[in-house]
Structure formats: structure tokens, C-alpha cells
Amino acid sequence: MTTHQFPPGFLWGAATAAYQIEGAATEGGRGPSIWDTFSHTPGRTVNGDHGDVACDHYHRIKDDVRLMADLGLTSYRFSIAWPRIQPTGSGPANQAGLDFYRRLADELLEAGILPWATLYHWDLPQALEDAGGWPARDTASRFADYAQLTVDALGDRITHWSTFNEPWCSSFLGYGSGVHAPGVQDGAASVRAAHHLLLGHGLALQAVRATTPSARLGITLNLYSMGAASDSAADADAMRRIDGLANRFFLDPVLRGEYPADVVEDLAPVTDFTHLHDGDLATIAQPLDFLGINYYSRHVVAAPEPDAVAKPSCWPGSETVRFVHRPGVPVTDMDWEIDAPGLVETLRKVAETYPAVPLYVTENGSAFVDKVVDGAVDDPERVDFLDQHLRACHAAIEAGVPLKGYFAWSLMDNFEWAWGYTKRFGMVYVDYETQTRIPKTSARWYADVIRRNGLAAQ
Predict the structure, then answer these.
(1) What mean pLDDT comes out for the span 20-49?
(2) What does the record give as the reaction this protein catalyses (predicted)?
(3) Calpha distance 265→369 (Å, rounded)
(4) Considering the entire predicted model, what is its pTM?
(5) Beta-carbon contacts of residue 317 (< 8 Å; ≥ 6 apart)
(6) Helices and strands (H and E) in the chain: how many
(7) 394 a known binding residue?
(8) Residue 296, annotated as binding a ligand
């Protein structure tokens, strides 16, 4: 019996990212990215792990697409590695790189799976980082050139395009705390990077629409539900600050053409915003065909401790704000609180507060410690996580949210950035020594949800 039926045509997908799964880091003319450099720098990743081989998806696309088809996916969200298309971040396209993504798209289409491409999932060509990276304004223009070149070449096969995945991570983790590539710790640089990522988004939409007007274009933001640790005014203000940096600093310019005034004020000790030029916000606020929302957890925020000392942080201007866990709330292997009601809150807030745009949950998933027992992987915690969050999606739709699809993170276990291969998010287990794929219990459960276009009775 199916109780929570989803609308006809609801998109059922899974997601991955190029550097996390492709491998073949030096094949097919691919140039080095900031993640190649970062992961090969001692001390940057757990166990010194890197993406040179990863899941070897570059050589296994037929088998991996067959896995997707067996799950019944109706869409697959993947990213295109900029260094495969432009090894140095500019100049003509590398045809071998384009051909790889043509083969992937053709395999997907033959299997009846909609290809959904992300143009940037954190792998900036190293040559562009050497020239200043995202804190440099020119990188936004280079991205627009790359986006136009790529969509022009692949737009006959791929219709849905996200410009960026989680610009908060690229800017504030990459240039603020330095825990992601390129590993810079500079609050002012992180704010400039955030602005230039958003500017690159707007410039790319303008460029692509000029040559491929049929393309469906959007951006993917990682958003969080928010809570204050107590009813105190100090905790409430701390929550406001983090909501501003995590959510509104990206939603407001993309959907309203403005930065939130309170966040600009919070950032005054960090930057004077001279990097914001006339016309930038109008460029950023290009009409969207969709907005992708990545949701994993809730932030519960508390005021700083007395005499707290600011350290390099992914929260520029709010470095001493504290994050706490609520007693009794379960967490994933990433130590992230599991909060499915927060997904309803997040979706409703976007739908009810901002101009109307079709919404997709473009990532949602969980890391747990998975083990192979007698050739199988049972992951009931992940099944429960997915079930809770899909019920939240259904509740949001019932409340009037224009939610059109859901992409589970992730299709398969992969290189989890600075955590290397120590965290597993996949519905398909990957033995990195043999590259054997083992669908977990969650994969079979998700396949049943897709077949039903809904959730079974509890």
C-alpha cells in the first residue's frame, strides 16, 4: 500500500560530482584542478587520500549507468570537470573531455534517464587559482566562457544545467576556513570569492541563453534550517548571523538582486564591499528555470563564549559563534543532526519568502558506517533517513511548495573531500581496492519508492 503518492512526472534521481568519482585524473587531456593540488598536499586530507582513481567512473560509465537503470532513476545529476573541458581554464575546448560527457549523456538517454549537469562542483583549474582564483573578478568571466562553450557543445544532449553547486562551500570553506581547496584562510578573500561565484553564475546564464535558449538553467545552493540554542537575545542574534551567511547571503542576490543589509553590516569588519560593482546584482539575479536545494541538517546556534578568540573560519565576521547539538537528537557519521522537519521548513521558507521558481532537492543524504557482510550491505539507518526526508518532501508539496524532483546523495560511495574515503554516503557500496559495486539495502528501498512513485505505509 502506497500512502504518500508524489505528483505525476516527479523526478527521481541520484547525484555525484566529477572529482569524487571519475578518477582518470591525468587522462583524456584533463588538466590539474585545485583539488588535485590540495589533496596531494600532505596533511590536507584524511590518510592523504586523493581522487586520482576514486570510483574509476571514467572507465566504468556503462556499468554505472546500468546500475542507475536498475534503480529506476529518471534523472542523474553529475558534474562536469572544468579541467577536462579547458585544462588551463581558458581557450578552446578539449575534445576528448567533451567526448567523455557525450558518451555519458548518450548512455543515460539510451537508458531513459535525464542527464542533469552541474558545470562547477569545486574543481577550479589550477591555472586559474594561480591567477587569483575566485577572489579575482576575472575568474567569473572565465567561468561564463567555459559555461557557454560547454553548453554549446553538449546542449543537444543535456537540457538541464546547474551553474554552481554550493557556492557557500567554494567560497567560505575554500578561502575562509581553508578546509577545502585551495586551502586559503582569509575572510575578506572568502567574501570576494562568494560574490564572484554568484557573478559568474549570472554571466553564465546570460552567455548560455544568448546561444542555447532552449537550455534549462539554475543554480544549486546548500541551505540549512536554523534554531537558536535558547530563547536569549544573544543566541537569537547568533542564529540570525549564521542564517544570513549560510542562506540569505546567496538566496537574496540570486532571487532578489540584493545582499541582505544585516549581513553586509555583519561583514563590515571583514570587507568594505568595493568588489561589488555597479550592475553586478542585476547580473546575478537572472531569471531561473529552477533552484536546486541541497539539504542535510539543521544548525543550532549559540552566542560566543565570553572572551572567545576569533580563528580562521567559514563564518567571516561571525567566527566565534558556537554550534551545538540538541540532546537526544540522532546524528550521522558526519556528526550532523538528522532533522527531516527542517527540510519542510527550508522548502516552505524559500517558496513563501522569495519569487516563485520551481524547486528541486538536488542533494539529500547521510553518511553511516557501512560494512559488507556475506556479500551484502545492510544500511537501515540510511533507509530511515531517506524515508523521513522523502516524507518531508511530500509534506512540503502538500503545503503548496512547487517541488518537482529529488536527488539522493549519493549514487555511490566516493571521495568525500577532506575526509577522503573514510565517509560513505552512497546507496551503492564501492570497494575501492577492486572497484566492485554492491547496491545497499537503501538502493533497493529507493528503487521501490521510484517504482511506486511514493512511499509505502508505515
Answers:
(1) 98
(2) Hydrolysis of terminal, non-reducing beta-D-glucosyl residues with release of beta-D-glucose
(3) 42
(4) 0.98
(5) 187, 241, 245, 266, 267, 268, 269, 270
(6) 16, 15
(7) no
(8) yes
Biggest distance spanned by C-alpha atoms of the chain: 62
Q: Which one of the listed residues 166, 337, 345, 381 is annotated catalytic?
A: 166
Question: What are the grid coordinates assigned to 451, written together?
Answer: 517504482
- Concerning whether 363 is annotated as a catalytic residue, the answer is yes
* Cell, residue 237: 542574534
Q: Looking at residue 410, what is its pLDDT?
A: 98
d(CA 228, CA 457): 34
The answer for 395, left when phi > 0, alpha when psi is -120 to 50, beta otherwise, is alpha
Q: Are 165 and 121 in contact (CB under 8 A)?
A: yes
- Consult the annotation and say whether 165 binds a ligand: yes
Percent residues over pLDDT 90 in the chain: 99
Q: Which fold, 2-456?
A: TIM Barrel (3.20.20)
Report the run of H or E that residue 172 belongs to, with start and end.
none
213 CB-near residues (< 8 Å, 6+ apart): none
Residue 419 annotated as lining a ligand binding site: no
User: Cell numbers at residue 172, please?
Assistant: 567560505
CA distance 245 to 393: 25
73-86 pLDDT per residue, tens: 999 999 999 999 99
- Contacts of residue 411, Cβ cutoff 8 Å, sequence gap at least 6: 14, 15, 16, 64, 67, 68, 76, 426, 427, 428
Dihedral in degrees, nearest 10, Cα atoms 433, 435, 441, 443: 150
User: Residue 275 has what pLDDT?
Assistant: 98
Q: Minimal CA–CA distance to 11: which of 65, 94, 76? A: 76
The string of pLDDT tens digits covering residues 98-149 is 999 999 999 999 999 999 999 999 999 999 999 999 999 999 999 999 999 9
pLDDT band at 1 (very low <50, low <70, confident <90, very high): confident
Find out whether 409 is annotated in a ligand binding site. Answer: yes
Considering the candidates 22, 319, 337, 363, report the single residue annotated as catalytic. Answer: 363
All three cell numbers of 339, joined, read 532533522
Split at pLDDT 50, 70, 90, the class of 323 is very high
φ, ψ for residue 375 (rounded to 5)?
Answer: 80, 10
Overall average pLDDT of the 304-324 stretch: 97
